[in-house]
Amino acid sequence: MKQTENGRRRVVVTGLGAITPLGLSADAFWSNLVAGVSGIGPMTLCDPTDYPCRIAGQADDFEPTDFIDRREARRMARFSQMAVAAALQAVADSGLDMEQEDPYRVGVLLGNGNGGFPTLEENCRILADRGGMRMSPFFFPMVLPNMAAANVSQYVGARGYNSTVTTACAASNNAIGEALMAIRHGVADAMVTGGTEAGISQLGLAGFAVMRALSTRNDEPHRASRPFDAERDGFVPAEGAGILVLEESERARTRGANIICELVGFGATSDAGHLVQPQETGESAAKAMQGALDDAGLGTGDVDYINAHGTSTPMNDAAETVAIKRLFGDAAYKVPISSTKGMIGHSLGASGALEAVACVKTIMDQRIHPTVNQESPDPDCDLDYVPNESRAADVGVVLSNAFGFGGQNACLVFRRWEK
């Protein structure tokens, strides 16, 4: 296969990093996913006593100073700390030596949903109780959504194209897709991309609780997130960061990089409808999936696995199932599908990035992780969701879905690397 397709530069994945409720590396994350382990437990990052949801997917073992100087870590919100930690892992995994690179040809493009919500809440309390002049002088550098990308850029030494996408739960897929385009169009030769979120706070918890979007299965945290199951009652809030290093394929080969797989497709659409409810017909979500496949030069028959958005909310899971059926027709019943969120919860703007790491690992290991807590069949969700146990499979092409508030849909296609 040529190094360019349809006149475009080919883009490959050469590095992975992850900070998750299931481990503080991509390998640990994947090992626990395949084993069907749940990373959901009691919420401790804030006091959830007065709220109907008191559980979360937290990266409890994450210690920022394992990755970042203590003084600098104190000047970052948690979402930035996680992004930097995952980015340092991914760059090390890629073997990218920034001292040997033109730093202006290496960029950073991240997605997140809300920036530093816990820091925002903390400083609003200070404003109300003690006055604005007692707020942290680092308030803005901590809370602004673009600060994760800014901090990653500083820590890895990437001085090229730098941006942030904030399309809610589709943010990471949008960011990775736009990083793909940046390399294709020659804006950069390599991109550090993915997403991060650390919004577990009373502010975030209350916002979703009053919408009745969260699971209330507090007595059984590990069974609370149950995508596509008839007994699902809402999503479980989570945090984390997932980072991929993308490179133009020929430069990666020339420097002897370990090419993990290829990123070949990106599609994005808008429902242009309800701001928080998915489109029942699945039309726009199906168009996003179709767009990603068209971009990749592939058809539905080429897809070996779908990593679903699969939030564990009644409306989302049914609508995503409809969208997959709309695009794939009868073949929808033959394509294995699973949701990563069953084991880690919903990390909002970071979810697509963590799922992208899982997709890449699926191609590497030729194994599909399960959708856990598949116990009660739902007639509206009747596809093959790989229930409860991982499955060995010949996986050459993976489609990954992410659908966000605002009706924003973003899908990616990864493919096994072939020279």
UniProtKB/TrEMBL annotation:
Pfam families: ketoacyl-synt (PF00109), Ketoacyl-synt_C (PF02801). Transmembrane segments: none annotated. The lineage of its organism: Eukaryota, Metazoa, Porifera, Demospongiae, Heteroscleromorpha. Signal peptide: none annotated. One of its GO terms (cellular component) is cytosol. One of its GO terms (biological process) is fatty acid biosynthetic process. InterPro entries: 3-oxoacyl-ACP_synth-2 (IPR017568), Beta-ketoacyl_synthase (IPR000794), Ketoacyl_synth_AS (IPR018201), Ketoacyl_synth_C (IPR014031), Ketoacyl_synth_N (IPR014030), PKS_Beta-ketoAc_synthase_dom (IPR020841), Thiolase-like (IPR016039). Keywords: Acyltransferase, Fatty acid biosynthesis, Fatty acid metabolism, Lipid biosynthesis, Lipid metabolism, Transferase. This is 3-oxoacyl-[acyl-carrier-protein] synthase. The active site is at C169 (for beta-ketoacyl synthase activity). It comes from the Eukaryota. Belongs to the thiolase-like superfamily. Beta-ketoacyl-ACP synthases family. It comes from Geodia barretti (Barrett's horny sponge). Residues 8-416 form the Ketosynthase family 3 (KS3) domain. GO terms for molecular function: 3-oxoacyl-[acyl-carrier-protein] synthase activity.
